[in-house]
Backbone:
């Protein structure tokens, strides 16, 4: 979610990326997608729920979930990142992702242990964001993103026709027939060691 | 909610009780320090424990503090009826202080540590119908152990520059402010306030599927009804955003995070907190601070500790500040001894004191 004015195409592409990551995760599944037209901007969000019982107090299980949740949060920014352009600066990632999703990723990473270091959190963000950018640059991923984005735009067009300010839908319809065949495995490189 | 009763009333605040317990003390003097520390904690004050041995390494400081904390918890059990199952829980030393991007410091908003299952509830001695299972708010994700933290504290291993400040707020006083504001009744006794707290906790639990917070917020405990006020800000840092799912579930939060009642708060988290204070007490966050805030600045290797249920704590910290959290905890907050200890905390605050105890004993010992 980016809480700022943006065009409808970009809004839908960001959400398509969230949905695509959720389709590929073994740890959670998308449940419902929600849209609101606010006075200055629109917000769009997909809820996910854990798809298996999690051993939260086991560091490896906890960190696997945190890695996937971080990727989910950062995916909207990665999907609008210019193709072929490398990313290194945390400021650029913040700008592309938006404050709300960026800080969600930050909070997930901070849950690994009692107050991990800022530098290591930001390093994990850079690594996962770059991996997402690489994934989304493939033709296969682009095709999936475009397909989900088109469905979202079609769904949102109903709001225009009926003059609605809010919409909610089961996410299944937006991701139907989307194969989970991309390499979307994410891991944490620094903080798992800290937590052990 | 109706705004009444809080125009001039300033409740009593806890004291910061500095206890300097060096190796050089005689046995009787060390015994007195232990008594002071135990009395401060039981009396609802904040303990600042200082070892005064500048040459000690961090490992030696941890070892000495561990021994002193065992002595203090033992004294609290033997003299002040802390439940016998209570134990000292050390966490890992932090690696730093995560801050919002582009910030050098963070302001951690008032909270209880381990708030997913450590927050103020009534004692079943005062509210026999209260279900002890309602002391668990969420158990999906948290850091790090599933224990009920009765007293929270930390040893400061790097103060940061400028040194961090820790702030404390009496939740009993806040509860009284809220009750006065919401009912206009300025003479409520312990029974009314314990019942008020019980109803508020129940309401927050009932709204969990909407607000999705892991911890009850201050507004939840102080009686806000609408789910927007039950949303815990991320971190909970003043500078931070809320979760996307919370905005999607309660879109009114977008406006609340963008503007607050006083118009001066920085950051979405602080603005939401300002709304919560205003909704429940009629005071904006800066006004709330003026009435209730107590602060402590600790030196390197000082321990700060206070009641984690009856006091909320906040902190202004530089990103390089590091601490080692240490708490007095219990695994099952449902025993008779626990209920009696909790009841005594309520009674001390609301003037129902046992014979010979005027509630100021810690203050006298520290003066």
Residues:
């Amino acid at each position: 979610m980016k809480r700022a004015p943006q065009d409808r195409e970009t809004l839908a592409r960001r959400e398509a990326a969230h949905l695509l990551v959720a389709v590929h995760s073994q740890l959670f599944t998308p449940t419902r997608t929600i849209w609101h037209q606010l006075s200055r901007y629109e917000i769009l969000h997909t809820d996910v729920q854990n798809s298996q019982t999690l051993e939260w107090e086991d560091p490896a299980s906890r960190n696997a979930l945190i890695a996937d949740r971080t990727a989910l949060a950062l995916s909207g920014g990665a999907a609008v990142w210019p193709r072929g352009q490398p990313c290194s600066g945390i400021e650029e990632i913040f700008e592309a992702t938006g404050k709300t999703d960026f800080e969600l990723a930050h909070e997930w990473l901070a849950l690994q242990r009692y107050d991990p270091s800022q530098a290591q959190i930001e390093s994990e963000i850079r690594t996962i964001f770059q991996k997402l950018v690489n994934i989304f640059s493939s033709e296969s991923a682009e095709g999936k993103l475009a397909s989900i984005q088109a469905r979202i735009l079609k769904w949102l067009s109903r709001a225009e026709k009926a003059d609605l300010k809010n919409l909610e839908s089961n996410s299944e319809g937006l991701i139907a027939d989307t194969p989970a065949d991309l390499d979307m495995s994410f891991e944490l490189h620094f903080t798992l060691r800290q937590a052990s | 909610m109706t705004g009444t009763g809080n125009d001039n009333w300033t409740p009593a605040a806890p004291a910061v009780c500095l206890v300097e317990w060096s190796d050089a003390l005689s046995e009787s003097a060390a015994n007195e320090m232990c008594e002071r520390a135990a009395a401060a904690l039981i009396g609802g004050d904040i303990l600042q424990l200082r070892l005064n041995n500048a040459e000690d390494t961090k490992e030696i400081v941890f070892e000495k503090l561990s021994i002193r904390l065992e002595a203090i918890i033992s004294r609290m059990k033997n003299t002040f009826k802390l439940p016998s199952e209570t134990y000292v829980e050390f966490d890992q030393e932090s690696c730093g202080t995560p801050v919002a991007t582009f910030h050098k410091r963070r302001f951690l908003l008032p909270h209880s540590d381990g708030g997913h299952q450590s927050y103020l509830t009534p004692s079943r001695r005062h509210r026999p119908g209260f279900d002890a299972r309602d002391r668990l708010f969420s158990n999906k994700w948290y850091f790090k152990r599933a224990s009920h933290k009765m007293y929270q504290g930390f040893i400061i291993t790097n103060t940061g520059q400028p040194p961090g400040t820790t702030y404390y707020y009496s939740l009993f006083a806040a509860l009284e402010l809220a009750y006065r504001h919401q009912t206009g009744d300025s003479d409520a006794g312990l029974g009314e306030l314990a019942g008020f707290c019980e109803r508020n906790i129940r309401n927050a639990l009932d709204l969990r599927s909407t607000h999705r917070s892991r911890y009850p917020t201050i507004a939840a405990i102080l009686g806000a009804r609408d789910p927007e006020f039950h949303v815990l800000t991320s971190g909970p840092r003043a500078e931070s955003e809320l979760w996307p799912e919370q905005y999607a579930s309660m879109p009114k939060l977008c406006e609340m995070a963008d503007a607050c009642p006083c118009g001066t708060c920085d950051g979405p988290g602080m603005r939401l907190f300002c709304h919560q204070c205003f909704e429940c007490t009629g005071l904006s966050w800066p006004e709330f601070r003026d009435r209730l805030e107590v602060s402590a600045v600790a030196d390197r290797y000082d321990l700060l500790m206070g009641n984690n249920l009856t006091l909320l704590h906040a902190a202004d910290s530089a990103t390089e500040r590091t601490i080692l959290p240490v708490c007095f905890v219990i695994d099952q907050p449902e025993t008779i001894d626990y209920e009696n200890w909790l009841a005594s905390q309520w009674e001390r605050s609301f003037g129902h004191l046992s014979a010979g105890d005027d509630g100021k004993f810690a203050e006298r010992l520290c003066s």
About this structure: The first strand of chain B starts at residue 16 and ends at 20. Chain B has one domain: 16-366. Chain B has twelve helices and ten strands. The radius of gyration of chain B is 20 Å.
